[in-house]
Amino acid sequence: MYLSIKAFSGSIFLLLIIATGLKTSMGCVPAFKQLSMPYGRNSRIIYDQSTGLYDLYQGKLQIINDAFAEVKSGDQVLKSNEYTVHTYTIEALNDQFGVGKRYMFFLRKKGLPEMQQVFYVYPNLSYFFTEVLLKGDAIKSNYMSPLSSNNVILHAKGDNRNLFVPFDNDTFVRYDAKSTFSNIKNASAEVGAFYDNTSRKGLIIGSVEHMVWKTGVLSEGKGDQLRELRVYGGYSDKQVTRDQIPHATISGDLIKSPKIFVGYFVDWRIGLEAYGKAGRLAEVPFVFNWAKPVPFGWNSWGVIQEKLSYEKAIKVVDYFAEKLTDFRNGETAYIDLDSFWDNFTGGMTGDFTKLKEFADYCKSKGLEPGAYWAPFTDWGFKSRNDREAEGGTYKFSEMWTKVGEGYHDLDGARALDPTHPGTQRRIDYVIDKLKACGFKMIKIDFLGHAAVESTHFYDLKIRTGMQAYRVGMEYLVKRVDGQMLIYAAISPSMATGRYAHTRRIACDAWKTIKDTEYTLNSLNYGWWQTYLYNFIDADHVVFSEEDPGSNNARFTSGLITGTLITGDDFSVAGDWNKPAESLLQNKELLAIARSGKAFMPLEGNTGKNANEVFYRTINGFLYVALLNYSKTPRQFNIPFDRMGLPKDLYKGKELFEDKEVELYKLLKFRVREQDAAILRIKLGK
Fold it and tell me: Is residue 605 classed as helix, strand or coil in its secondary structure?
């Protein structure tokens, strides 16, 4: 093995030539001042070993200047540019991301623990990964940043945006594409996007590992420049991550930050999709892969809620069997009993006979039974402290997650420690009961309660909220044992990808145009999670007594998100029957949902609101969803090139009204007030 060193464009590039039969690792290499790490088609990282700083280039454009790693060791803050000795190794990679190289830089200074900066680059990927490690005796840290910089330039002055991404989908939180017309500060959870909506150029940075750390992306700047950017493990914020205390400290002789995805893209939307796909590769799902068709079905929380009874549930099954015979995928649909299914049993420790009868009746009608549970919450914590938890002799008060002198309460429930044996015995009991009844789907809720930081967990080896989340979710998935479709409702957005087949994109939504707009804010800026999960979902679609336009819009929100779950009270007749029997059995519309993937937003400049246009190509057709949330008609005039359409003339059909359309140079279409339209445009010849 040997190195050839060659000057090129003012930088030193290293050509690694590996002789046949020799190891891929070079071992430590003498320090040259600058090292170039190329990746993708025309991108590179320039690392200056004399300073511990690095730059990111896209072609000739410098995107990130003088980036450094920053780590807390106890109370001391250590920065890579404060170290004095820098050596490195290069190792060949052939992993789930493809063929590439790993560069490791070893930073040493007398009296300090060794810092290691690591970069993963691939010639076929337009992004790279970086992480930082600290090595020493009994190192402790709750803050590790592989990338911090005081100088970031997007090189795209237009409608510049800095995206806030929530940690979860609780408390009706919204994504926020903040305008940087004036100086703004932004603290985003797990991933950040800094982009120009006009040109669509964007920088995407986020964590692809979520089993130890919560990651924050903090930035401040104006226009297309950031004067501060920090991406770090150790993020804690009561309003975002729900934590009441700082992020816990991890310790050991070698500790590591989360692995961070970094990429500059010609289209920020393509960048976020790449990030979602990378997350699924970096953390392979723990849950079994869902190979069956896209789930269609019904959920009782849409309207029936606490009035759920055996009689009502049976009537819903009959309605599906008699009136909604074409609302199926893979010859079945799921009838999911949400909270209050224990009305059937007389309580969680009661007689499950009626619940099994319901499940059997579903199957006799060609339908699949589903149930609901929140495994990490105690809803009765305000009553007696000596209450015994199901499945064992542990008291709920023993199982509560400890936070300072108190506990973690949110949404009216108290968090249960996922590492506590009482929590796990309770999981055994409930899941085994549901499996014995024959349930084929479970909706799990309020999962964020399992991810909060705690003063200490029952398992003392577990320190951070995300470590506890992993313990709890892996235990739950193992107990399900591949027998049920797992649907996550309120939950951490990125970390839950390992444990659920489908996840609700936002918080609860029902029937109104406001519900539709709220849901589509999350789709607008979180649609890329369709690549992190098998499916994402828009919550139960309810028609109720709304006007036809609002029903079209709410139905559209389900179609363009992924799975399709409805929620009206079909145990009784009402105004909702007509739109249900029409829309839920429209073959051309259902073809959209059967594809199972979310639509991409046309624009990303709507702040906390949702934009009005989403689109996706399916089987040679471009489907364009147009939504009008306002109380006045809306005329759309969208240039073809904004949607990547190369020709001047296209023919298609509007699917709600079954009306042929012809489009010339513009997608020109009028949508009534508080209504929606879906255009199916034929591509190709």
Answer: coil
